[in-house]
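Q: Convert this sequence to structure tokens.
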Amino acid sequence: LLELLEALKPNQKVTQKYWPGGAKQGKAESARWTAFAEEVAQPLVTRWRQKRYAVVVRLLQGAVAVYDRLRLRSGALNYQDLLLHAARLLRDKPAVRTYFRQRFTHLLVDEFQDTDPVQAQIMLLLTASDPAEREWRRCRPVPGSLFVVGDPKQSIYRFRRADIVTYNQVKAILLATGGDVLPLTTNFRTQGEIVAWNNTVFDTHFPQQADSYSPAACLM
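A:
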């Protein structure tokens, strides 16, 4: 039932001449369909998703707890463990952060658009001027300590928590602390025909001014 209701979309195209009552009946049925979709079907599907979400999250939390115990029992770590434990260590131990700040004075991050919030946290904790600051969004990098290279148009890894919101948050922090943004708008890899086609696509699908969820067209 919910799958059927989910398929009901408002403002469907109605071919009025096929209705027994002609255009008048077609318009009336179209309005009735839209009203049902907007006032009944969509709210019900939304509430069902909200109800289902809480159940699924509780189930997954139990599964995660079991998986955590199995890894702990076997003395194993996965990739996410390495990130989370590293971030927690840098956040909670100022002496550790000071040690690594002295050891690694400059940090270069390539493919920055693939950075997820945990990785961004590690990056800013490692370069922070204040080793006691625990909130990564309030960290201020030591001038010259952090250099990132990224393309927001390639921010497509949201399925593993890397999205343009994180990209923009870190960019704002760098700008607020005296950093510079250097646009790379010249292509030395590709022939002119492909560049021209890309520019047409960019100009069609991206806004002229970047916003919170989309990069600017920024033609080459």
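Strands lie at 107-109, 146-148.
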